[in-house]
Design goal:
heterodimer, A: 216 residues, alpha/beta, Rossmann fold, seven-stranded parallel β-sheet, 6 helices, 7 strands, 18% strand, disordered N terminus, B: 155 residues, alpha+beta, HSP40/DNAj peptide-binding domain, Alpha-Beta Plaits, 2 domains, four-stranded mixed β-sheet, 11 strands, elongated
Chain lengths: 216, 155
């Protein structure tokens, strides 16, 4: 775990218990772009938030968010998995749990921590020891057969996001059918279509987060 | 919406068991029904058997369990009741199949328990979905499948 801290620890201040939301999905599906789009939407709703990123052997995603100007860089921590990314969000999430604990201690009043997984495969899932609720991000350019492959990530997540909707006509994807397939394999549990780059569908994702774990 | 931010006790606790029994007789115990796989959640919305909307937000060092008392008032209580876990028993006839099956269920990250000649899989979805995975791996005709039974001992 790496990253500068916001202030000295003050053990006398009541500690926050922030909601923890996971964001996982394959490499290049748009997890970081989704977070970049979510941050201003959630901030506009008055949500006090921080982010933990996971990368294989770098801090690329954390540095991208710190440089984005969207969030206080001190509110972004990086975890280097050093192995298959799912190992630190499922089998042994202690590094990420410690990062979340750190943020709660350093930022009294923190309400929400977003945990971005490293890019992984369709079998990637989050441990409920780490997060309260989790999102799995796939994208249309990955192929419209992804939902039909019934990967555990697609099936078990609390919210499935199908990103890059704008690319559907360019990659020969029938987005309506892809969404229908996703709803079918998920027994009608929620699916949201997004174009994170243009903030399309982001309000719907924020609505889900705020309702599910912030109870608003 | 009713906010639940701690577990106040267990229905087996001396202080609660008798009083809960009395409340049950008056239909005043509301049950929060949860699947076994959902017990690890600490923050979620739910509706009790009595129709009460609740928002659960537990400290990270508290874990829900069957019989956890979430609310205890003079005329009402809310208690967790866990759905019986369903297990799919996969019997094997020889060591080679056992090794192959064990390798694949590990890769699939299924929750399992073992007995001498079988692997029992905790079902978090339809049994058909698990059997389809095994068929795709060419294992379906080399194992003996026992239909899942809710609440039965795993193995």
């Amino acid at each position: 775990m790496n990253g500068p801290m916001a202030m000295p620890l003050d053990e006398t201040f009541p500690r926050s218990i922030a909601a923890r939301v996971g964001i996982g999905g394959p490499v290049g599906s748009g997890k970081t772009a989704l977070i970049e789009a979510l941050i201003p939407v959630l901030q506009a709703r008055g949500v006090d938030l921080a982010v933990v990123t996971n990368d294989l052997v770098t801090r690329e995603d954390a540095e991208r968010l710190r440089r984005s100007g969207l969030i206080d860089p001190l509110r972004v921590l990086a975890v280097e998995a050093g192995a298959c990314p799912h190992t630190v969000i499922r089998e042994d999430p202690t590094l990420n749990m410690a990062a979340g604990d750190d943020l709660e201690l350093r930022f009294p009043g923190l309400e929400l921590i977003l945990f971005e997984s490293g890019g992984d495969n369709l079998a990637s899932t989050f441990s409920l020891d780490l997060v309260d609720w989790w999102i799995f991000v796939i994208d249309v350019a990955g192929g419209d057969d992804i939902p039909r492959k019934k990967g555990p990530g697609v099936l078990r997540c609390d919210l499935l996001v199908i990103n890059k909707q704008d690319l559907a006509p360019h990659v020969g994807v029938n987005l309506v059918q892809m969404e229908a397939d996703a709803l079918k394999v998920r027994s009608n549990r929620p699916v949201v279509i997004t174009d994170s780059r243009r903030s399309a569908g982001i309000d719907a994702v924020a609505d889900r987060i705020v309702r599910a774990v912030l109870f608003r | 919406m009713l906010q639940i931010d701690r577990i106040v006790g267990s229905r087996l606790d001396e202080g609660y068991s008798e009083r809960l029994h009395d409340l049950e007789h008056h239909g005043a115990v509301e049950w929060l029904m949860l699947a076994a796989a959902e017990l690890a959640r600490r923050r979620f919305r739910a509706v009790t058997s009595g129709g009460t909307e609740i928002a659960v937000a537990l400290p990270r060092d508290e874990t829900l369990f069957d019989g956890a008392v979430l609310l205890f008032e003079q005329h009402r209580a809310i208690v967790v009741r866990v759905d019986a876990e369903r297990w799919l028993r996969l019997g094997v006839r020889d060591m080679a199949v056992a090794l192959e099956l064990g390798y694949h269920v590990g890769n699939l990250h299924w929750r399992v328990r073992f007995e001498a000649t079988a692997i029992c899989v905790a079902l978090e979805g339809p049994a058909e979905a698990y059997l389809a995975r095994l068929a795709a791996l060419g294992l379906d005709d080399r194992i003996e499948v026992a239909a899942p039974e809710a609440g039965s001992a795993p193995c």
